[in-house]
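agent> fetching stored inputs for the arginine docking request
agent> found them:
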Amino acid sequence: MAKMWAGRTDALTSKIADDFNSSISVDKRMYKEDITGSMAHAAMLGAKGIITETEAGCLIDGLQSVLDDLESGVLAVDENCEDIHMFVEQVLTERLGDVGRKLHTARSRNDQVALDFRMYLRGETDEICARIKALGQAVIELAEAHKETIMPGYTHLQRAQPVTFGHHMMAYVMMLIRDLDRLSDCRKRINISPIGCCALAGTTYDTDRRMVAEELSFEGIAMNSMDGVSDRDFALEMLSCLSILMMHLSRFAEEIILWSSWEFKFVELSDAFTTGSSIMPQKKNPDMAELVRGKTGRVYGDLMALLTTMKGLPLAYNKDMQEDKEGVFDACDTVKMCLDVFKGMIETMTPLPENMLNAARGGFINATDAADYLVGKGLPFRSAYKISGQIVAKCIREGKVLETLSLDEYKGFSDLFEEDIYDAVNIKNCTFRRTSEGGAGPESFNAQIEFAKERLT
Ligand code: ARG
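agent> prediction call returned; pasting tokens
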């Protein structure tokens, strides 16, 4: 097929080479960015007298018509073109003749593709942030409804100390807030314009890069032309942010999977977000949560793929870099889907406070509080810890719990025990008296809610 770059060669590549070289199936989704980027470039060429104002106006109108026709469906992307940049220029030239051939003055596909990619990811960042906020708000709502629901908190997946379900939920909200911060910070570095870096060395035309950057709402311009066309760390940074976000969602998903098992039964997922088994009639499977956990691997893979693609490339542009977009798009699509599904799953999930409380009563999660009680009576913590441990051992031997041991039995371990020990090991008291900042108590909970609501709205 004859190419736009015919000149030095006759540019007749074989079909198999064409197919291998082509990226249009992946980059066609950037058509809007490509066209608006070109409009700004054309306007600058006209303003600087590199082409006439009439030619610039003609290019801008032509580009607008290509955009309109693509959006209305009158025009379809021709997948025989190498990439979206070539396609747009080809259609424009078909429509405008020689004027269309002036658009590519003082730029290259190298700065053009970097521009389109940055503009596209800027938009994706905004969409993902909006979804993180929506999920965060749904989790806050769930937390508020269960600010008094007692559950066992775990370490090593062993019952450790009592917390509220609300406090546990708010831990995930804090993670989501940091995910949001990371993405907003990453957006600043995405939002730097590479257009005008041209192929790698800048240009001899009297261009105005800042004018184009401003028109396209960029915060600044790449200060080094070689860096501008060859850097992909903005995409890697975004993939890193998305990987961390998915890691959070995956941990959350894992807990929901555990909690919805018969062994825990802390939550019941709605029918709308579970599936049945084709053979076992009793099954209600947490497929959505499992898929979020599973798709995390896919997003990590996208990050690893691009890191590996980039690691040995000499400056500036190399065709290897055409491989940069597919994984990032895949990660963005995956993350958006996961956030939407997760929100739906959370909103329709029914926590089962009775079961949580029963579990909280069973695992001596008030043993620390029994030790703290003795500390309150003047014993050093290490000695108190030992006595509390011996009491737990006795309870396990005799099938008792700290709440049902008699005062005489307590006194057998230490004279310091009085009637108020029952108040100290009461599970609710153990939870609500954790008044330290950030702790499981109600003051901390309220502070968390206030902070999170402010950050997520
Ligand atoms: N399709 C190419 C990409 O995605 C556009 C840039 C091509 N530049 C070049 N020098 N061949 O990277």
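agent> quick read of the result: The chain is about 60% helix and 5% strand.
agent> awaiting further instructions
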